[in-house]
Structure of STM4013/SEN3800 family hydrolase:
Amino acid sequence: MTDMNQIVGSHDIVMITLDTLRYDVAKLEEENCPNLCGSGPWEKRHTPGSFTYAAHHAFFGGFLPTPANTVKSSHIRLFHTKDTGLRTHPDTWLFDAPDIVSGLANEGYRTICIGGVIFFTKKNKLAKVLPGYFQESYWRMTFGVTNPRSTEHQVNHALKLLEKADPAQRLFLFLNVSAIHGPNHYFVKDAVKDSVESQRAALRYVDQELGSLFDALRNRGNTFCMAFSDHGTAYGEDGYEGHRLAHEVVWNVPYREFIL
């Protein structure tokens, strides 16, 4: 358990959701993902939601994916809102706000969202809800699921913001990576349908692009990073396709936290 009371205020904090990444896919590609897995393996966890909108509301409330076991003592939350009456841990950072984004803003953090999938596009009222948590939010067509270079564009935008950022002000940077979400078949030559193999290829692409972002964050100083999936997706298992459904390939997600 990381003592978040030592992290908040002294570190930049980065949350990266690898949208739709399955746990089994992440494990298969550990050796091919030096940026995401260079300091350790993925942990198997359970997501609080079976699709992006539901899961991210939970994440911003401090309800991150929980360890995929029955040991209650291991289900310790990094962030927890004050005065709920629920049990907390001495290492949990308590915030006096309805969500961790505004809680960190109250501590002087600059909060930035770089969106990816449809719920971050701000194209309608529904798609403005999740970006609305942040002081600054950004989305471009080039960040979306239909662009094969979406992560490159998202990272480049983040790099421009970091280059101009005040080094004395702590940042909370949220990045919703869209490339792993379907359609991802174009990451495999001649493929016409999304599959486990095309998601694996998409993850390798994402890891490659994240390297320059991690380097820039290291140059700013200490950064606490959380990288995890919001949910998985089914590619025909037991007759299921997609997500927003109750199947283990949807509920089991990879999770990592590390210091840059």
About this structure: The mean pLDDT is 96. The two ends are 17 Å apart (CA to CA).
